[in-house]
Amino acid sequence: MKHLVMLGAGHAHVHMLSTLAAQPLAGVQITLVAPYPRQLYSGMVPGFVAGHYALEDCVINLAPWLAHSGVQWLQRSAVALDADARTVTLDDGSLMAFDLLSVNTGAVQNREKIEQMMPGAREHALFVRPIEAFGALWPQVVALAGTKALRVAVLGGGAAGIELACAVAHRLPSSSVTLVAGDALVGANYSDKVQARIKRALKKRHISVIQEQATGISVAEVALGNGGQLACDVPLMAIGAQAPSWLQGSALALDKQGFIAVDEFQRSTSHPAVFAAGDVSSRVDRPVARSGVYAVRAGVPLAANLRAVLTGEEPNPYIPQTKTLNLLACGEKYAIASWGGWSAEGKWVWWLKDRIDRGFIQKYSGPAQP
Ligand SMILES: Cc1cc2nc3c(=O)[nH]c(=O)nc-3n(C[C@H](O)[C@H](O)[C@H](O)COP(=O)(O)OP(=O)(O)OC[C@H]3O[C@@H](n4cnc5c(N)ncnc54)[C@H](O)[C@@H]3O)c2cc1C
C-alpha cells in the first residue's frame, strides 16, 4: 500500500481533504501531519482583531473531513525532511516514511532571523504567526487595553501590517497605533492609486506611520534605524513570510529564499515524489505572490495531481491566474478593493469581503449530508 503524507493543513490541503471525503482513494494510506485540529483562516484575522468575528467564526475544523476521508491525523509538526530517503522527522523525534509527500505548511516568521534584525523581538514582540498562538494572545491585549491606554506599534508595512494596524485602531480606540514600515513605502506592492487610498485610510484612523527600520525591541520601546526610540507597550510583529528552516538540508531544490521550488504540476523540481502548494512553495515557471488567494486556488490542481500520480496517471499543468481581487480590511466595516489597475473602497467592499470569507468557511464546514 502506498503512503501519502500530507504536511500541514493549509488551504490547499483543506481542499484535498474535502475531495478525499467526497471520493476516498482506495489502496492508499494517507496521513495528515498537522499541529492543530483546525485551520485558522488568516483572511478573517484582521476582522477578529477588529472585533467583528469571534475566533470560532474564522476556523475550519478538520474533524468532519477526517471522519469521511479515511485520512489519519497525526497531531505533530515536521521538523526535518530527507527527500532522498523519503522520510519526515516529526517533533517527537519519530521518523515517518512516505511514497508521496505533499507540503502545505505555509510561511513562517523566522524568530532567529527576526531576532538578528531586531534584538529583543523574540522576548517582547507579539508575533502574528503561528496564527493560532496569536489568536489565543490577542484577547489578552484587549483585556489589558481595558485597564489603560496602550501604545501599539505594528511592525511591517505590507498588507497584513496595514490591516492589523487599522483593526487595532478600531478595536482599541483609546490606544495609539503606529505603523513602523521600514524603508519600503507602505503597501509597496500595490499601485500608486491604492497606496494613496491606504495613506488616506491610515490618516483617517489616526495611525502614525514611521518610515524607519525597527532595529531592536525592549520592554517599553522599539528602537529605530535613525537612532530614535518609539515608546511602545505592544509591538505587534507583522513582518516576514519566511521559508521554514527545516527545509534546509532536505535535499529538495529550494528557491533563493528557501521555499520549495515547484513546477507547473506543483511538483518539486528536484524530487518527483514531493508536491508543494501555497506559501511554502515557489513556482519556478511563473512566480506568484504569497497570498491566501493563491494558496486556495492551488488546492484544486494539487488534489487532482496527487490523485493522478497515485492512480498511475499523468498530472496536469496548472496555470495560476495573473491578477487576483485584493481586499484590504480597514478596521471598521470598510475595505479597499483592487484588481490590476482598478481600485475602489467603501462599506460595500467590506460587505463583499465578509461574504467571500464567510462563504469560504461555510464551504469547508463539512461534507454535504446525503
Ligand atoms: C494577518 C494576516 C492577514 C492576511 N490576510 C490575507 C488576505 O486577506 N488575503 C490573502 O490572500 N492573504 C492574506 N494573508 C496571507 C495568508 O495568510 C497566507 O498567504 C496564507 O495563509 C498561505 O496559506 P497556506 O495554505 O500556504 O499556509 P497557511 O495558511 O499558513 O497554513 C499552513 C498550515 O500548516 C501548519 N503547519 C505549519 N508548520 C507545520 C509543520 N512544520 N508541520 C505540520 N504542519 C505545519 C500550520 O499550523 C497551518 O495550519 C494574511 C496573512 C496574515 C498574517
Automatic annotation (TrEMBL):
<dbReference type="InterPro" id="IPR036188">
    <property type="entry name" value="FAD/NAD-bd_sf"/>
</dbReference>
<dbReference type="InterPro" id="IPR023753">
    <property type="entry name" value="FAD/NAD-binding_dom"/>
</dbReference>
<keyword id="KW-0274">FAD</keyword>
<feature type="domain" description="FAD/NAD(P)-binding">
    <location>
        <begin position="3"/>
        <end position="286"/>
    </location>
</feature>
<dbReference type="InterPro" id="IPR017584">
    <property type="entry name" value="Pyridine_nucleo_diS_OxRdtase_N"/>
</dbReference>
<protein>
    <submittedName>
        <fullName>FAD-dependent pyridine nucleotide-disulfide oxidoreductase</fullName>
        <ecNumber>1.8.1.4</ecNumber>
    </submittedName>
</protein>
<dbReference type="InterPro" id="IPR051169">
    <property type="entry name" value="NADH-Q_oxidoreductase"/>
</dbReference>
<keyword id="KW-0560">Oxidoreductase</keyword>
<dbReference type="GO" id="GO:0004148">
    <property type="term" value="F:dihydrolipoyl dehydrogenase (NADH) activity"/>
</dbReference>
<dbReference type="GO" id="GO:0003955">
    <property type="term" value="F:NAD(P)H dehydrogenase (quinone) activity"/>
</dbReference>
<dbReference type="Pfam" id="PF07992">
    <property type="entry name" value="Pyr_redox_2"/>
</dbReference>
<keyword id="KW-0285">Flavoprotein</keyword>
<dbReference type="GO" id="GO:0019646">
    <property type="term" value="P:aerobic electron transport chain"/>
</dbReference>
